[in-house]
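task queued by scheduler; priority normal; single chain, no ligands, no partner chains; default sampling; output format set to C-alpha cells
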Amino acid sequence: MSDLNVLRKVLRSDEHFFWHVTGSIIDMKYNPLYWFLTIITLGIFIPCLYYKRVYTSYALTDKRLLIISGIFSKTVDEVELFRITDSVTNQSLIDTWADIGDIVVNSSDFTGQIIMHKIPNPYYIRDTLRNQYTKIRQTSGTVLLETLNAPTRHCL
C-alpha cells in the first residue's frame, strides 16, 4: 500500500491538505563520499539510502503533521500542530546545490523531535509548516509556555 493510499484513509473530511513530501537522494550525484560508499559496498549503499529516505513521508494538513513510515507495513504518527514548539532548517553546501535540506521539528507531545531528512525545497516546506502551527495556535488560543533556565542565585 502506498503512502498516498494510507494518507487518503487517514485524512478527515474537515481537514485542508497542504503537501506530502518524502526525502530525496538527489544529493547522491554531488557527494563524493556517497560515490565511495557505493563502490565499497558494491552498489548496496544506493538502495539502502533510497529506502531510508523515500519510505518515510510527511504530510501537512491544517490541523496536524502526519509521519508515514515503513516499506511492507505502514506506521502513521501524527503531531497536532498546536503542539509544535519550533522548527529549524539545516542545509549543507551540497544540500544547497541540490535544493534539499533537513527540517527539525520539535513538539511537546510524545513524538518529541522529528527530523525530516533531505526534503526538497526545505524553506517552502518549513515556512508552510510554521505558518500553519502559528495560525492554529492563534485561532485556538493556545499559549506556548517556555521554561527559562536562569541561573539560581543564593543569598547568604
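post-processing summary
- The mean pLDDT is 88.
- The first strand starts at residue 17 and ends at 22.
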